[in-house]
Design brief:
The complex is a heterodimer of chains A (161) and B (785). Chain A is α+β, with helices and mostly antiparallel strands and 161 residues long. Chain A is built from six helices and five strands. Chain A folds into two domains: 73 residues, Beta-grasp domain (Ubiquitin-like (UB roll), Roll); 65 residues, [2Fe-2S]-binding domain (DNA polymerase, domain 1). With 785 residues, chain B is of the alpha+beta class. In chain B, the strands form nine sheets. A seven-stranded mixed beta sheet of chain B has the order 7-9-5-16-13-14-15, sandwiched between helices. A five-stranded mixed beta sheet of chain B has the order 11-19-18-17-12, sandwiched between helices. Classes of the chains: A alpha+beta (161), B alpha+beta (785). The interface between A and B is large, with 63 and 59 residues. The structure holds FE2/S2 (inorganic) cluster (FES) (2 copies). One FE2/S2 (inorganic) cluster sits at the interface of chains A and B.
Chain lengths: 161, 785
């Protein structure tokens, strides 16, 4: 089967019970998406499927073969970061950084459906992404700054670069 | 800049790690840079510079252990026993026949192969639920996981004890099968003065018993290792707080010289004390890699992570404080009981009782009981977090009884020196933390009536009145203080290499847990070299290619490594100045540098580092730095005070922490942004400890019931209060020549008692047990006010 990931069509051979997370990480070497629990409890594996944030660990790879998938790598690169990534970096919203890819993806999904979220809306939308280092205050500030356009115009919802 | 020291090159000194004192032979540095005092004019150190690796983290390019994929790599998974005590038998027949399975190992495969502590891997004597008893290796991660579940594990059940009371009861089963259930020479008694006389002198006394939960580190990145043999050399990627300690562990286990083991840790996803050594996953990966001659990845799954990678043990503390009417403490007494787990060390609750306040008579007893539960591991300020809950709750109760402001009570008992060891502090900014913290929080200066400590942000609600959403809520404020040894110490080494392109590389074998070590050491080197941040890169995390530093524990990394980095940078700069002097035709002693430009006081001519480097070409300039011994008979500690405002829903028992102000003193702050991030992280872990986090043990089955992130609740963004965290200005040139003490552990210490004190203020009832779950809050009830 083919997966449409980050603007490319990739041929993959998942077992019928393989999660999207396994295929992304182990088969496609897209290791930006992290595994924190493999059971839908932490959000480290969040990716966009047709623009919506999903836990890749709870998503069967075979179930998304005609969907458009964007991972943290597809949002931006070190040379050309997504405004949300630039905001996270500039405002110290990553400590160990392990939860960060999932946080960034969830934040992008939030801003794509709500360009000017209130703090309460941010807290609500982001509460499925755990961070043990305690970056929450900085993430809130980063999302607000990105929403204000301080790190460049936000691209169209769910699109990969 | 540098004063030469004469005398012995190596001396014996003492180093304190998390309350433990170790004696070490250490190198006396060949020269010691002039200390950066509070008035030192620094351009890069102390600046709010972005973390050097934050963009690669935000774009998913940063590599962690589980991201390492070696050619031909296969996957290992651990098999655990889910019973607290008994002899295990294992049947792996079905597992071996499953698709993709390459190998299974049990105790028989370890015997005679692994030495040292690792020889206990897959012990047939199961002593706690969650203990690894076998491992499976397969072609894919999923195949290994499925096969691990197919291994049949049978434990012949034996009597067990999972609570302190059960372990200490007459006729209790021996937790380790032999010896005694008393751990660590319990009871440990520490005292100064005369506690009976102190209590007799007291005009007011308070006594209370508090209970704290068993808490789990729960780093988002689980423990993990990738192992590969290159001939007779072992290479291991490990998510660790101590690459050199993992190297020692592996060298001992496989009976190898240290230099035949290489341990690498590039990025790692948090440790908080749980990742200080090699673990079963490490030995498993290395053992399979040896047997199969293939690279092997072994990552602990979330359940294993919550079951068996460490914890902060629970505690019960019986506290009595005695004071005069004016608030001066005359006696501090604490009797602590700790169910330690199957093993652990004496990081108990007592120490903070000796260090935080001035008091002539202090007496503590700690009893550590072995229980059939997984071993404790240091968890961010081990012992002090538990102890602070007891001591600071007791101080709050005392303040109420004395009708005294809690801040004023603490100021009155400020310790002007380290009374526990009768020595001066290297520096102590606690009074400024009280003052500035109270000011920024808006600490009410009047009234100690429950609920009356209303605040500018909300004001107290009329008792029993419903708010706009129809909720019955009450607000309260509370505060607590903290002390924690943060001196760091030797040995720690760094090299600074000046490159032919005019840049510098800092080489030091430390690790960055998310603290920002890479960033601050680059700042220190850039400052000392007189270069720009962009010209300096810091390379860490490789035992083969980098000089030794110790574990990143005990808030030690900055105060241990930063002085070595600074010295190495100054050494390199001195060498480069000799070359520049030749080129500029001036005396080297006339040279100085900043912003990458070298100037002379005796010439108009300047040169950049690039100019000099280009001219000297591939001449290798390497500066060497070592961490000198700490000042003797000096207590090096960090301090802080936190202020919390809570809202309690009196109908549902739900506590919300609205805001926290945190004022901390750690000497010089190398990067205020990163320091604030650390403070916020500690505070949020403290919020979890106060409100949600508790490993629940089924005492009849002897098994933890909530080894998941769904059932073991860590704070989410929705739980995050508004946090105003800062460090008071200053530097501590007595502690070391960079002037910085550690900051990693302090911020978690006062958070839970500050929150509980705020709940006490809101309700007029005394919370004595955390976490303050809704049912505990409801059980507290409302006392009439
Ligand atoms: S790994 Fe998917 S939610 Fe944790
Ligand atoms: S930054 Fe470490 S878990 Fe979020």
């Amino acid at each position: 089967m083919h997966l449409h990931v980050n603007g490319r069509s990739r041929e993959v051979h998942p077992a019928s019970d393989a999660s999207l997370l396994t295929v992304l990480r182990d088969e496609l070497q897209l290791t930006g998406t992290k595994e924190g629990c493999d059971r839908g409890e932490c959000g480290a594996c969040t990716v966009l499927v047709d623009g919506r944030p999903v836990y890749a660990c709870l998503t069967l790879a075979v179930a998304v073969d005609d969907a458009t998938i964007v991972t943290v790598e597809g949002l931006g690169s070190n040379a050309a970061p997504h405004p949300v990534q630039a905001a996270f970096a500039a405002l110290d919203a990553a400590q160990c950084g392990f939860c960060t890819p999932g946080q960034v993806v969830s934040a992008c999904a939030l801003l794509a459906r709500n360009a000017a979220p209130t703090e309460a809306e941010i807290r609500d939308a982001m509460s499925g992404n755990l961070c043990r280092c305690g970056t929450y205050p900085k993430i809130i500030a980063a999302i607000q700054a990105a929403a204000r356009g301080e790190f460049g115009a936000l691209p169209v919802a769910g699109s990969a670069r | 800049m540098a004063a030469k020291k004469k005398g012995k090159r190596f001396i014996t000194t003492t180093v304190e790690v998390e309350g433990r004192v170790e004696s070490k032979i250490v190198e006396v540095p060949a020269f010691s840079p002039v200390p950066w005092g509070a008035d030192a004019s620094l351009d890069i150190v102390g600046q709010r510079l972005p973390r050097v690796d934050s963009l690669e983290k935000a774009t998913g390019r940063a590599r962690y252990t589980a991201d390492i994929k070696r050619p031909g790599m296969v996957w290992a998974a651990l098999v655990r026993a889910h019973a607290p005590h008994g002899v295990v038998t294992i049947d792996a027949t079905a597992a071996r026949a499953m698709p993709g399975v390459l190998d299974v190992i049990t105790a028989a495969d370890v015997a005679g192969v692994l030495a040292s502590a690792a020889a206990k891997l897959f012990d047939r004597d199961v002593r706690y639920s969650g203990q690894p008893v076998a491992a499976v290796c397969a072609e894919t991660a999923e195949q290994a996981r499925v096969a691990a579940r197919a291994v049949r594990v049978n434990v012949e059940a034996a009597p067990f004890a999972v609570t302190f009371e059960a372990s200490m009861a007459d006729g209790a089963p021996l937790v380790r099968g032999a010896g005694s259930n008393y751990a660590l020479n319990s009871p440990l008694v520490e005292s100064r003065g005369d506690i009976a006389a102190g209590l007799a002198k007291a005009q007011v006394t308070v006594s209370l018993t508090v209970r704290t939960p068993c808490a789990l580190h729960s780093a988002m990145e689980p423990h993990g290792a990738v192992a590969e043999w290159e001939g007779d050399r072992l290479v291991v990627w490990e998510s660790t707080q101590g690459i050199f300690r993992v190297r020692s562990n592996l060298a001992a286990a496989f009976k190898l010289p240290h230099t035949r083991v290489r341990v690498i840790c590039d990025h790692m996803g948090g440790g908080f004390g749980a990742k200080n050594a090699a673990g079963p996953h490490t030995y498993t990966a290395a053992l399979f890699a040896k047997r199969l001659q293939l690279p092997v990845r072994c990552i602990v799954d979330r359940e294993g992570e919550q079951l068996d990678t460490g914890n902060r043990p629970a505690s019960e503390q019986r506290i009595t404080l005695g004071a005069r009417r004016d608030g001066r403490l005359t006696a501090i007494k604490c009797e602590a009981m700790v169910p330690l787990g199957i093993m652990g060390w004496e990081g108990g609750p007592a120490q903070i009782y000796h260090e935080l306040y001035s008091c002539p008579n202090v007496h503590t007893t700690e009893t550590f009981a072995l229980v059939n539960a997984s071993a404790m591991q240091a968890f961010r300020a081990p012992g002090f977090v538990e102890g602070a809950f007891g001591l600071e709750r007791a101080m709050d109760v005392l303040a109420t009884k004395l009708r005294m402001d809690p801040v004023a009570l603490r100021v009155r008992n400020f310790a002007k020196k380290d009374e526990a060891k009768a020595r001066p502090w290297s520096g102590n900014g606690l009074l400024r933390c009280y003052e500035q913290g109270a000011l920024r929080f808006g600490w009410p200066s009047h009234g100690d009536k429950p609920g009356s400590r209303s605040t500018p942000s909300g004001g107290s609600k009329a008792h029993g009145a419903a708010d706009a959403q129809g909720r019955n809520t009450r607000r309260g404020v509370g505060m607590a203080a903290q002390v924690w040894g943060t001196g760091g110490g030797p040995p720690a080494y760094a090299l600074v290499r000046l490159n032919s392109d005019g840049t510098a590389t800092v080489l030091t074998g430390t690790q960055d847990l998310g603290t920002g070590a890479r960033t601050v050491f680059a700042q220190v080197a850039a400052e000392a070299l007189g270069m720009t941040m962009a010209q300096v890169r810091c390379v860490i995390g490789d035992t083969e290619r980098l000089p030794y530093t110790g574990n990143s524990w005990g808030s030690m990394t900055t105060p241990s490594v930063a002085p070595a980095v600074r010295m190495a940078a100054e050494d390199a700069r001195t060498q480069l100045f000799e070359a520049a002097a030749e080129m500029l035709e001036v005396d080297a002693s006339t040279l100085s540098s900043s912003g990458g430009v070298i100037r002379s006081t005796s010439s108009e001519k300047t040169m950049t580092f690039s100019d000099v480097s280009r001219k000297v070409g591939e001449v290798c300039i390497i500066g060497r730095g070592s961490r000198g011994p700490n000042p003797q008979k000096t207590g090096i500690f960090s301090f802080g005070a936190q202020f919390a405002e809570v809202e309690v829903d009196v109908d549902t028992g739900v506590v919300r922490v609205l805001r926290i102000t945190a004022a901390h003193d750690c000497g010089r702050v190398l990067n205020p942004t990163l320091a604030e991030s650390q403070l916020e992280g500690g505070i949020l872990q403290g919020v979890g400890y106060a409100l949600f986090e508790e490993r629940i043990m089924d005492t009849r089955l002897g098994m933890p019931m909530n080894p998941t992130l769904h059932d073991y609740k860590v704070p989410t963004m929705a739980d995050s209060p508004r946090i105003d965290a800062f460090c008071v200005a200053g530097a501590d040139p007595v502690a070391n020549h960079v002037g910085a003490r550690g900051l990693a552990e302090p911020p978690i210490i006062p958070t839970a008692p500050a929150i509980a004190n705020a709940v006490a203020n809101a309700l007029g009832a005394e919370p004595l047990q955390i976490p303050l779950t809704p049912w505990r809050v409801l059980a507290l009830g409302l006392q009439s006010t």
